[in-house]
C-alpha cells in the first residue's frame, strides 16, 4: 500500500467529517439567503404566476419531519435492542458464574470430603477462594442463593469454610433461613434481610449498615460488635438480641420491642429512631 493510501486511511474519518461540515454549512447559508442559491438546491422556485419564491421554514419541516422521525425511531429501537442484548449477556454470565460455583463446591463435598473438619485442608482453601471470587462477581439475588446454599450444605463454619471478609454487599436474602449458624467479619451492607429467620445465629463484627431486617425473627440472635448503622430493625421482637458493642447510629427500631437495659447497653445509638417502639 502506498504512503498516500495509508495517509488517506489514517485521516479518512476526519476527511468525511470535514466534507459533511462543508456541505451542511453550504446548505444552511443558502437556506438563510435562498435568493442567491443555485437552482439545483431547490431553495427557490417559480410559482404558477412566474414569480420567484423561496421555501419557508414550514416547507423545510414538512420535508424533514418524516425522515427525521424515522431516524429517531430507528435510534430508539437500536438503543433498546442493544440494552436488551447487554442485559441478556449479563444474565447469562451471572448464571454461568453461579452454576460453576455450585458444581465446584458440590464436587468438593462429594469427592474431597469438604464437610470433614479433620482432613483435606486443600479443599477448604479452594472452597474459600471460589466463594470469595463468586460473591465478588455476582449480584443481589444470586448472592442470596449462595448464602442459602452454604447454610443448607452445613458449610458456614470456620473449620469447614471460612468466609471472613466476603463481599455479600447488596445481597437480596428476603425470607432466607439462617438459624443457629455463626458468621464473622462479613460485609452485608445495603442488603435486604426482610422477613428472614436468624434465630440462634451469631453475626460477629459484620457490616450490616443500611440493611433492611424488617419483620425478621431474631430470637437469641447475636449481633455483637457489628455495624448496624442506618439499619431498619422494624416490626421485630428484639428483646433477646445481643447488641453488645454494636453500632446502631441512625438505626430505625420503629414498631419493635426492646428492653430498656438493652437500649442502655448499646455502644453507639446517636439519633436512633424509636417511633412506637415498645420499651420493656
Structure characterization notes:
The chain is mainly alpha-helical and 280 residues long. Helices cover 43% and strands 6% of the residues. It has six helices and six strands. The strands form three sheets. The protein has a two-stranded antiparallel ribbon. Strands 3-4 form a two-stranded parallel ribbon. Strand 5 (257-258), helix 6 and strand 6 form a beta-alpha-beta unit. Helix 3 runs antiparallel to helix 4. The longest helix is centred in the N-terminal third of the chain and has 56 residues, at 57-112. It is elongated and about 95 Å long. The termini are far apart. The mean pLDDT is 85.
Question: Summarize this, please?
Answer:
The chain is mostly helical and 280 residues long. It has helices at residues 3-10, 12-32, 57-112, 121-137, 140-152, 260-265; strands at 44-46, 52-54, 182-184, 202-204, 257-258, 278-279.
Amino acid at each position: 500500500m502506498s504512503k498516500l493510501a495509508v495517509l488517506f486511511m489514517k485521516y479518512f474519518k476526519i476527511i468525511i467529517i470535514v466534507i459533511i461540515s462543508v456541505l451542511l454549512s453550504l446548505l444552511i447559508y443558502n437556506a438563510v439567503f435562498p435568493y442567491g442559491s443555485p437552482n439545483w438546491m431547490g431553495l427557490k422556485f417559480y410559482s404558477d404566476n412566474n414569480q420567484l419564491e423561496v421555501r419557508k421554514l414550514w416547507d423545510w419541516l414538512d420535508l424533514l419531519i418524516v425522515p427525521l422521525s424515522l431516524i429517531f425511531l430507528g435510534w430508539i429501537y437500536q438503543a433498546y435492542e442493544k440494552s436488551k442484548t447487554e442485559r441478556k449477556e449479563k444474565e447469562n454470565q451471572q448464571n454461568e458464574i453461579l452454576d460453576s460455583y455450585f458444581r465446584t463446591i458440590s464436587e468438593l463435598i462429594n469427592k474431597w470430603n469438604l464437610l470433614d473438619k479433620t482432613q483435606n485442608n486443600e479443599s477448604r482453601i479452594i472452597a474459600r477462594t471460589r466463594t470469595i471470587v463468586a460473591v465478588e462477581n455476582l449480584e443481589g439475588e444470586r448472592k442470596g442463593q449462595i448464602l442459602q446454599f452454604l447454610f443448607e450444605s452445613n458449610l458456614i463454619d470456620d473449620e469447614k469454610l471460612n468466609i471472613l471478609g466476603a463481599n455479600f454487599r447488596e445481597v437480596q436474602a428476603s425470607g432466607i433461613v439462617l438459624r443457629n449458624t455463626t458468621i464473622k467479619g462479613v460485609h452485608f451492607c445495603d442488603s435486604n434481610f426482610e422477613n428472614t429467620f436468624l434465630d440462634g445465629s451469631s453475626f460477629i463484627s459484620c457490616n450490616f449498615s443500611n440493611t433492611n431486617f424488617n419483620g425478621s425473627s431474631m430470637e437469641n440472635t447475636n449481633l455483637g460488635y457489628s455495624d448496624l448503622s442506618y439499619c431498619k430493625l422494624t416490626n421485630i421482637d428484639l428483646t433477646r438480641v445481643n447488641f453488645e458493642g454494636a453500632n446502631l447510629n441512625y438505626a430505625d427500631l420503629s414498631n419493635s420491642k426492646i428492653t430498656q437495659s438493652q437500649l442502655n447497653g448499646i455502644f453507639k445509638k446517636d439519633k436512633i429512631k424509636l417511633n412506637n417502639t415498645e420499651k420493656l
